[in-house]
Amino acid sequence: MKPVRHPDAPLPGELLGAHYEQCFGCGGAQSHGLHLEARAGEGVTVIAEFTVQPAHQGAPGLAHGGVLASALDETLGSLNWLLRTIAVTGRLETDFVRPVPVGTTLYLEAEVTAMAGRKIYSTATGRIGGPEGPVAVRADALFLEVEVEHFVHHGREEEIQAAMSDPDQVRRARAFEVNP
Ligand SMILES: CCCCCCCC/C=C\CCCCCCCC(=O)SCCNC(=O)CCNC(=O)[C@H](O)C(C)(C)COP(=O)(O)OP(=O)(O)OC[C@H]1O[C@@H](n2cnc3c(N)ncnc32)[C@H](O)[C@@H]1OP(=O)(O)O
């Protein structure tokens, strides 16, 4: 099935914001996190930027591959906000094409390519030197739609319950990426 953007999805260019302040990918309260900022694109696409910090090194002066995979995962995960579904990564296949030095900004783009039942297929690239620069990393992913209970059961229930009773409807919806 062709992916369909939710009618209430953020407009192209709009910042998506963090789904959880403690998220390693997008949270503002995570000091060594990626602080990745994603914006809605056209259709079911997003763009995002992330600048590699010294805390993200693997080899001296170069980004750790797992951190780059996290940046791809986070960007791909933010696509769910355009679909208004809650989904988690089931599979993430990553190609590391070029080394990414500390201080480099990674320009990420992601797109949902297909959907089948609970399965959401997506792809992402990360470029360096500018949004049109050479591809340094790319990934193909399979996300699986889940119920809120996934996080209640496996995660920290108190925080999930608190987020669910947040009177701010947008914040509540953003936390769980559900159809309000
Ligand atoms: C203030 C508080 C705020 C709180 C806010 C919380 C909510 C936030 C909202 C959203 C979070 C976003 C977070 C963003 C971060 C970026 C995204 C991540 O990193 S997510 C973390 C990493 N991922 C996991 O931890 C998944 C761990 N895995 C699982 O839980 C299960 O394995 C799961 C749900 C992925 C699948 O389990 P099943 O039991 O539901 O599904 P089955 O029945 O096994 O499979 C369904 C279909 O999918 C295929 N499938 C499943 N896993 C597959 C795989 N790995 N590869 C290929 N196919 C797979 C199967 O073959 C099956 O296909 P057939 O329907 O038969 O055609």
UniProtKB/TrEMBL annotation:
GO terms for cellular component: cytoplasm; membrane. Its EC number is 3.1.2.2. Keywords: Apoptosis, Cell membrane, Cell projection, Cytoplasm, Fatty acid metabolism, Hydrolase, Lipid metabolism, Membrane, Transit peptide. CDD domains: PaaI_thioesterase. Residues 61-121 form the Thioesterase domain. Coiled coil: none annotated. It is a peripheral membrane protein. It is found in: Cell projection, Ruffle membrane; Cytoplasm; Membrane. The keyword Hydrolase applies. GO terms for biological process: fatty acid metabolic process. It catalyses: dodecanoyl-CoA + H2O = dodecanoate + CoA + H(+); (9Z)-octadecenoyl-CoA + H2O = (9Z)-octadecenoate + CoA + H(+); decanoyl-CoA + H2O = decanoate + CoA + H(+); tetradecanoyl-CoA + H2O = tetradecanoate + CoA + H(+). GO terms for molecular function: hydrolase activity. Belongs to the THEM4/THEM5 thioesterase family. PANTHER family: ACYL-COENZYME A THIOESTERASE THEM4 (PTHR12418). This is Acyl-coenzyme A thioesterase THEM4. It comes from Streptomyces aurantiogriseus. The lineage of its organism: Bacteria, Bacillati, Actinomycetota, Actinomycetes, Kitasatosporales.
